[in-house]
Amino acid sequence: MLEAVRRRARRGHATERGVLREPLTAAQRAEVARLLGTPWDVAGGPVRLQDLGSALAEHGLTVRGFVEALDGEELVDQRALRAEREAAATREVAAVVELMGTVGIEAELTRTWLTEAGLPRGGTGELLDLAERVARVLRRLPIQPPQRLAGLAAAEFANAHALDYREELGRALVRLIALVHDLPRPMRAGRDWRRAWAAAGVLCDGVSSRALALNLPLAGDAAAVRWFDVAPGEPVWVSLRSITGSWTAPTGTTVFVCENPTVLEAGADELGADCPPLVCTDGIPSIAALDLVSGLAAAGCEILARADVDESGFVVVEQVRSAAPAARLWRFDPATYARHFGLTEVSDRPDTGEVTLRHLRDLHARHGIALHEEAILDQLLADLGEFGRAGASARNASTDSTAGGGVRGGGCGDVDDPGLR
């Protein structure tokens, strides 16, 4: 009966008048009768709140007061509370729209920005606080001559990292800038992130993030294009700065992606300029690695990805596939894992994509043994060598491809190998 009173109060209904039509057992009716009196028990009717209030009044209590005393907290009308919160949210959103208008952002654009996932909810004051900090920076934009992002953050907030992508302020601000300039929404601190900031006269750090690569057949005006041209067969560290600008790769080029530098260096040692294009994330992919893979995928390259079979390796592959959603797996499958450890419960069925990853995760969880890339290095090198030879044969057979320079490192061949899924 008391829980029924609580529900009525939370819905904004009266607690001192009305009827509680809760089903009661004989034992429960006997308990209520001890308070309301034997005639109520015999009558067999529902509990009237007036009767309950009369009985409690003898002890100086109302029905609501009795429940609040038991619970130690006030009974709140949740409907009224929700209405109050909604009204507060509406007021705060209106304040944000008005504030953004003072820095030249149209109301419709501001309302679109406010639909961004991750922004604070209106009604708590946090949204307006964030908007005030965003407006503080917008008043200085665009900056001429361009200023570096860390310097802008330090000048405005005495914190060089205040506008980093991992900070709520940095993400909120750059996405509003992208909206204003009709640019792609930055999903991470990559190419779209730098492009949006550049539109506002702000330069991002381009040298801290890097990735290792071999024999990438790039074309364009980015610095990395020249580096690969003059260093065939040699590992090259690629920074964000070096892939800023326009660059592309031949459509259909197959690019292998691994986690550990040992694989890439062994490919350079064993195959040199004949090694197929290879990118190494060097652990969890950096922004440069994801930007590079994303750009290659956008150019029409086929990405074959793998990593260590351990928890970090699964993160590596997931992030690579987020940058290149069509990426296939390279010996990152249950069959490879099972063969290496002599397990018999896994078949060689040609699983692909999410199914393969789920089965591999389950297998790794059951056995708890990591399979590092170095442990199957011979297999990986054999794949690269076979792929490179197939690509070389295809180039030699094509006069047009030879005349045009082809795809260095066997990028256009194909290998009918169960390791390439």
UniProtKB/TrEMBL annotation:
- Origin organism is Amycolatopsis cihanbeyliensis
Q: Where is the DUF2399 domain?
A: 241-384
Q: Which domain of life is it from?
A: Bacteria
Residue ranges of the region described as Disordered = 393-421
Q: What is the lineage of its organism?
A: Bacteria, Bacillati, Actinomycetota, Actinomycetes, Pseudonocardiales
Q: Where is the composition biased (Gly residues)?
A: 403-413
Q: What is this protein called?
A: Uncharacterized protein (TIGR02679 family)
Q: Which residues form the Conserved hypothetical protein CHP02679 N terminus domain?
A: 22-217
